[in-house]
């Protein structure tokens, strides 16, 4: 094995956006770092060889123009985790490798209202971390090198609709705080006409350093503990062999397996509700002896954005690209444009993103609508209930080592249900106003739209950060330095620690928090 015992200052578990960013920061600070990722590399540079027939440097996943259809690629199924609840990706880059690339710069209020993010994690504290991220991985609302936007039929129709309602056009990158009755061209995680994200914008920097090891196809089973000290991790290698990799003296383990997988690592390590640790033990994991168990509320507090699907017949004519022709190379018009860095294939799925909010009993709830063309003249609006939602669920474990949703995180409170209904009803009224000429399709009324609820795939909260120590009846699993309560050298930096949901798609916030968390960890002597 390439794994060196007693060598690493940091073992980072999980090569998703949070894990790659944290690992790179630890390397930058002069440490010896191992990044362990259970999946394969998705880019040519990281070992992928299923490239496009017309470009041997790019996989279909890299091409922005195919991201709208990413869910129908064979690679997508290959990359999805098969042992987690909900949706997560088990591939280097995590969810960012297979997602729809919507890149929402978070507004300050995401951290400053509702009192969920603790002191030290308000926007004024996070802004410098965001700036560091945006410098490397800025996102764009104009990806085509020629400065043109392609396929703008939907944007024209919907901007006319929203203008009539008095909504305002904004640039969601330069005006992130504008989140009431606004619409924007979509911001995408695209750089140099390719899917961006930490695999491209952080990992190459880490890989230049000899003190950095990346181990792919290696699944961490648990951390190895001696009381409150982590001494190493147990890893199942690509070869099928299981090994324990020990830390250097004063080394640290940093979990970044994602909000749906980090809890499993904690349960397997004797950290979490008793019931979950017992299940881990029954499934054959070597959990510590019971006197070492730390009964923290891991998995409790699972959150996500629910999605409600609205389809509108608008009379326009949009259509969707011919994905087969892009893959087999016969769409020479778009492919030739792309070869110059231009055109439809440089863009993601959506053509417009809107935001708004409503208030109920003094609580503001936000909504995002991601609008994309469907076949013919129908457009689809993926409507999310976002920041301000008050529902929480529970993530647990089954005896086969799958994480499972024990209680749904969606629409658990009467106020969430009432507020979401009121927002959707207003939108339906506006859409159905005879002056628009629009007609609802598929889900024909508010009740049907609400019943279409599906996962937003923006999971958080399963190892929540906060000052109320979970070992003393509080709700938090990690402290404000992201260290697990009761442990000396175990940290978490992924979506699990977010104590709140953002107003928009979450990946940007995941990356900002990982930047900030790595800085906090490095500052702990
Ligand atoms: C289908 C889909 C579409 C999405 N669309 C968008 C979008 O358009 N915009 C947006 O902002 N967000 C989107 N998201 C959400 C976003 O991608 C995730 O929130 C984000 O990737 C979470 O980052 P993370 O680092 O916390 O965890 P993850 O991305 O889940 O990364 C965790 C990593 O850890 C690895 N891992 C897990 N367990 C182990 C283990 N035991 N040992 C070793 N490695 C392990 C995994 O393989 C993975 O690489 C989408 C998510 C999905 C699933």
TrEMBL record:
What is stated as this protein's family in its record?
Belongs to the GMC oxidoreductase family.
* Cell location: Cytoplasm; Secreted, Cell wall
What the entry lists under SUPFAM superfamilies is as follows: FAD-linked reductases, C-terminal domain, FAD/NAD(P)-binding domain
* Cellular component annotations (GO), alphabetically ordered: cytoplasm
Checking Gene3D superfamilies in the record gives: Cholesterol Oxidase, domain 2 (3.30.410.10), FAD/NAD(P)-binding domain (3.50.50.60)
Its lineage opens with: Eukaryota, Fungi, Dikarya, Ascomycota, Pezizomycotina
Annotated keywords: Cell wall, Cytoplasm, FAD, Flavoprotein, Secreted, Signal
- What is an example of a GO molecular function annotated in this UniProt entry? flavin adenine dinucleotide binding
Q: Which metal ions or organic cofactors does this protein require, according to UniProt?
A: FAD
Q: Which Pfam families match?
A: GMC_oxred_C (PF05199), GMC_oxred_N (PF00732)
Residues reported in the UniProt entry to bind FAD: 91, 99-102, 220, 495
Its protein name is FAD/NAD(P)-binding domain-containing protein
